[in-house]
Design goal:
heterodimer, A: 57 residues, mainly alpha, 2 helices, elongated, disordered N terminus, B: 484 residues, alpha/beta, FAD/NAD(P)-binding domain, 8-stranded mixed sheet, 4-stranded parallel sheet, 9 helices
């Protein structure tokens, strides 16, 4: 048996230590409204293309 | 004059009924048989489950919508299908038991010319002891489950405000589950909400799932072009969790839940226990348990349905090793091979095989994510089935329109925090849903149409889709112009 309340291990011992993490700039761009307005249009277009292709079978 | 009966009023059934009604003439009948009086836009249950949205905003009564559009609605649960008729009639019919207050359990025979089985799944909480709202865990599979989850979350937040630490466990409650995407959406929304309520520092948030790797989602994962690399969805999902300090357990089969404790077995055979204060674990799905009888009254359910209760359609169900399955095995028209006037749509059809490689623990427990077939594919299948039924009503010999999951893509927006300025969502597209390694030998998918991105724009799209799809489901003017 394991995983009872043992407290938080240090970050370097967590599985997340080996995962990629976004830089501060990437995180900023994710909620930077002018850039996100561009992405809104771009993602909608990508999705529309996919929907049209899917409906064609 | 023909009568089309649709079982179920979820995404697939509601779409099929609405299009059948639109395309048939007034002299034809469309009947919907569904045990619940309301339509529930399930993707938004996530927001109900974290207390951001009241249940009334994700559901509405079906009867007035159907009355306005000339669809006959029977609030009842179908229990039997008699596709060859019975002793007193040669016409096919089904038996339904009313679920309406006042006449619960009253049986009715409903004759049909064409039957569309779109019942959705049975939420099989019973597969894991102690799982589910009647046991010791929560769910967001229905609007009422989500309301319950939100109440428990409020209690946990109160405790954290008093200084207590709380341990959250979110994911799949059995090794054979599907819908990992919904659990994923719940855990990232939960984390966002705990931050918004100022108690994140007192929460330990854990993911548990039957996925071999994070980001599998029951579809064998996917590959994306990002930053000059072709990256598996594992990297994408791990990054999302690591950034939010969400920890994870994968390759796990939850075998028992007791109050505050989940026992699970991992693929390598370890028996583990996890102590929790709050657990939202999704159940595996099964068919709803419809029985089928021939003219003489003999039970022929096994001819029409798979043992798991999902309906056999025009797929290739020949048992073969996982490596030998191909995209061509997947159904195209969803017609029953036994009864040509019976179709299945959405979760009700039996997939020919898993998309993710099925595995077993040393004790034989499944670590086998089932294929997802909710949302966009469900609606597209519902529409194609309606088109075929209408054609056959008009004299076509058989179905011509196809909606194979191996030839259609899916667009998915997974909310990761609901705020119009600081929220984010993961926007993903995948084409095709079922990998086709003959057409796309390297990754099974078209990488130009398979992408993923996290940002506020995704959240705006999610909000847009919520309103658009509820508008469409209400069959408001122009509803049929909104794509599935």
């Amino acid at each position: 048996m394991s995983d009872t309340y043992a407290g938080e291990p240090p970050d370097r011992l967590k599985e997340s230590f080996f995962a990629t993490k976004p830089t501060g700039f990437t995180r900023f761009m994710r909620t930077f409204i002018p850039w996100q307005m561009v992405r809104f249009a771009a993602i909608n277009l990508k999705m529309l293309r996919l929907i049209v292709r899917s409906h064609r079978g | 004059m023909s009568r089309v009966v649709v079982l179920g009023a979820g995404v697939a059934g509601h779409t099929a009924a609405a299009f059948a009604r639109k395309w048939l003439t007034a002299s034809d009948e469309v009947i919907v048989v569904s045990p619940k009086p309301d339509y529930n836009w399930i993707p938004s249950n996530i927001w109900v489950g974290v207390g951001l949205m009241p249940a009334e905003r994700v559901r509405f009564p079906l009867a007035p919508v159907y009355a306005r559009h000339g669809i006959d609605f029977k609030q009842a649960r179908a229990t039997e299908i008699h596709p060859e008729g019975g002793a007193s009639t040669a016409a096919p019919y089904l038996v339904a038991e009313s679920t309406r207050t006042g006449d619960e359990g009253e049986r009715e025979d409903i004759r049909y010319d064409f039957l569309i089985n779109a019942t959705g799944p049975k939420l099989n909480f019973g597969a894991t002891e102690g799982l589910g709202p009647d046991g010791h865990t929560l769910s967001v599979c229905t609007d009422s489950h989500a309301v319950e989850a939100a109440k428990h979350l409020d209690t946990a937040v109160e405790r954290m405000k008093r200084g207590e630490r709380q341990r959250f466990l979110v994911g799949t409650g059995h090794g054979g589950c599907t819908c990992q995407g919904a659990a994923f959406e719940y855990i990232v929304n939960l984390e966002f909400e705990l931050r918004a309520r100022g108690v994140r520092d007192r929460a330990d948030i854990w993911w548990i799932s039957n996925e071999y790797e994070l980001g599998d989602f029951g579809m064998g994962g996917l590959h994306l072009k990002r930053g000059g690399y072709i990256t598996p969805s594992k990297i994408f999902t791990e990054s999302l969790f690591a950034e939010r300090n969400i920890r994870w357990i994968t390759r796990a089969h939850v075998r028992k839940v007791e109050p505050g404790r989940a026992q699970y077995e991992t693929l390598d055979g370890q028996q583990q226990e996890f102590a929790f204060d709050f657990a939202m674990l999704l159940p595996p799905f099964a068919g709803v348990g419809l029985k089928v009888f021939d003219k003489a009254g003999a039970d022929i359910t096994a001819k029409v349905f798979q043992p798991n209760g999902f309906m056999k359609v025009d797929a290739d169900y020949t048992p073969r090793p996982y490596e030998e399955w191909t995209a061509k095995d997947w159904p195209k028209t969803y017609q029953s091979p036994v009864y040509p006037n019976v179709f299945a749509a959405g979760i009700a059809f039996a997939p020919p095989h898993a998309i993710s490689r099925p595995r077993q623990t040393p004790s034989g427990a499944p670590i086998a994510p089932a294929p997802p077939r909710t949302g966009m594919p469900s609606a597209m299948i519902g529409k194609a089935v309606a088109r075929n039924v209408v054609d056959m009503v008009r004299g076509e010999a058989g179905p011509r329109h196809t909606a194979s999951m191996a030839a259609m893509g899916a667009a998915c927006v997974a909310s990761a925090g609901a705020n119009p300025f600081t929220g984010t969502a993961a926007s993903m597209t995948v084409f095709p849903i079922v990998p086709d390694f003959e057409r796309y030998p390297e990754y099974g998918r078209d990488l130009d149409q398979t992408f993923g991105e996290i940002g506020l724009a995704g959240h705006w799209i999610k909000i847009l889709l919520h309103h658009l799809f509820i508008y469409k489901a209400r069959l408001r003017p122009g509803w049929s112009l909104i794509p599935e």
